[in-house]
Amino acid sequence: MGFFKIIKKDARSQARTGLLKLGKISVDTPVFMPVGTKATVKALTAHQLYDMGCKIILGNLYHLYLQPGIEIIKKAGGLHRFMHWDYNILTDSGGFQVFSLGDIRKVKDEGVEFKSVIDGSRHFFSPEKVIEMQSDLGSDIMMVLDECIPYTEDLRYTQDAAKRTLDWAQTSIKAKNKITSKGALFGIVQGGFIRQVRKFCAQSISEMDFEGIAIGGLSVGEDRGTTMEILAYTLDYIDRKKPIYFMGLGDPLGLMEAVQCGVDMFDCVLPTRISRNGSAFTDFGKINIKNSGYGDDFRPLSSSCGCYACKHYSRAYIRHLYKSNEILASILLSVHNVYFLFDLLNRAKEAIRADGFSQFHRRFVHHYTNG
Amino acid sequence: MGFFKIIKKDARSQARTGLLKLGKISVDTPVFMPVGTKATVKALTAHQLYDMGCKIILGNLYHLYLQPGIEIIKKAGGLHRFMHWDYNILTDSGGFQVFSLGDIRKVKDEGVEFKSVIDGSRHFFSPEKVIEMQSDLGSDIMMVLDECIPYTEDLRYTQDAAKRTLDWAQTSIKAKNKITSKGALFGIVQGGFIRQVRKFCAQSISEMDFEGIAIGGLSVGEDRGTTMEILAYTLDYIDRKKPIYFMGLGDPLGLMEAVQCGVDMFDCVLPTRISRNGSAFTDFGKINIKNSGYGDDFRPLSSSCGCYACKHYSRAYIRHLYKSNEILASILLSVHNVYFLFDLLNRAKEAIRADGFSQFHRRFVHHYTNG
Lengths: 371, 371
What we know:
2 copies of one chain form a homodimer.
Chain A: E1 4-9, E2 16-20, E3 27-29, E4 31-34, H1 46-51, E5 56-60, H2 61-66, H3 70-76, H4 79-83, E6 88-92, H5 95-99, E7 105-108, E8 111-115, E9 122-125, H6 127-137, E10 141-143, H7 155-178, E11 184-189, H8 195-207, E12 212-215, H9 224-235, E13 244-246, H10 252-261, E14 265-268, H11 270-276, E15 279-282, E16 285-288, H12 308-312, H13 315-323, H14 327-353, H15 357-370
């Protein structure tokens, strides 16, 4: 088999299960990839992730480039050894981060110039350079440099940016062929919220020699209806034989909708970020542990959850930790929220195998939104 | 056997190994008890502590009384269940904390009145009440209420405070006999830095029916020489058949000196506190991971250490985490520093068994202080 194999298609939706053949260990899809921006999934040890069944995490070239620097990680023997993560790592090129910098970056046809947020020093990312650096990190899946534009851009700029992103995609493939990286390379479909540009990008990226296709530039501030409309439209022009990766989506309802459309891979800082804010996913919606009602609630965060936090600790205890500013609150909530998404996708896979994803999806939405 | 058994005395020092017969699991001494003030050893899960061989931790009545409140913990089924800790818990009475409050507390012969630092509400701790509450928590070792005085107090106040502490000790024993707690009760020797008062306290507490004897009011700001001089002097008047607990000592050199004098039990916030500040114990002294020299140092924190952090992570990585404000830095350093003290005491026990503690001690001090 090749890099990706579709195992089972749901009979009544686009949802599907698949297998990513990756260097370290194969990964079942649909999969949620926890974000380890700075070489750590916030508040979690590698072993807590192993215990949850995590087989792939994200790293971010942009952040690692600034701190501790690519040279240090190379010297350590690559990102896996540096952060003691034996399974797979997908590295983001940093396009999204650089383009979030606003005034302190400048886009050129050859790449993007930006100032370090740490010390103000000037740097330049080109499509070739980000591939080389991701290869230096030892990335299992590398992402091309792309230009991620704001929700509000007009047709002209959207087209210009899309053209650059497509040119960079071509350059990236050439760059990758020049080096000996064992990592896979994914292209990224941009095109803002303008259908004709999205369509052109989706078709162009599909025709190129990428192992997988990412959809970028969505879930950047627009309402959920728009996200899903553009997602579904974009998917119509994507080569569905390849694994499809929705960048930056991580809420349970969003995941389920995208799985229904046929998306295979997800990442998002959401589950770990809301943890540090006291929130927890449950099958009956998100709860916030700060709520005084949980003060003497000795049930687990989620009764049906099998995570370490739910097996051993109560809402009352985690609320106490949170109110006492104890680090363990962030740890336990992070364990729970990441596990919750893993478990949700495992349940989704089961439903797909039984040709019952739509029903599973409807039920999940019903419980999640009606509390 | 009774509550405490001395297993082996070192031939050439007062150092000794022993066994505390506690309800949940027996504990080898000398032992360091990590501090879980607010029902959590900061930054560590229960299982990380189990994995290190931890069999007893501290809880603090004063903090738990204020947040979440004793009623909540009673409702949870006790402190062990609340915080999911299956082994032993020693609870401090809160004397030290209340007496640290300065202006917002008032000592009376019947107990001590104080204002909550959380909401300013008024509270009263009596010797009876702190025993009852520790019993409600399900404490395995309860501490009496004592009056901890500043380093600088004069003879008159030192004597008055000591008298109150001894009266409270008597009251505490009566209070404990009235309830059905299975916990052991430890008396506390106070007496400031005045020899005659220390001696009187040591003798008086030794004559009372306590399962163990704690030495309080040391390591409160005085120099180390004074601490050890008063410690050694105090120990001369203590019933050495009982387990002896030095409250609030946790640096490697201090532990070794006190073990040499015959102390069996220790607690301190130090190992977890310095972790959040980037420091790590090693056999060659304390290092601070912020130091730029560690930027490309791929050795573990301590080469001879078998802790989770040292087995899997490098100084360079932990430095990167620390500089990036990542929670995992605190977690890994806390794992290491607590484990380091456990391991140090295990090595001390081995040396005692081989009648070689003094030599072990000298060597340790030599390496630790010469870097």
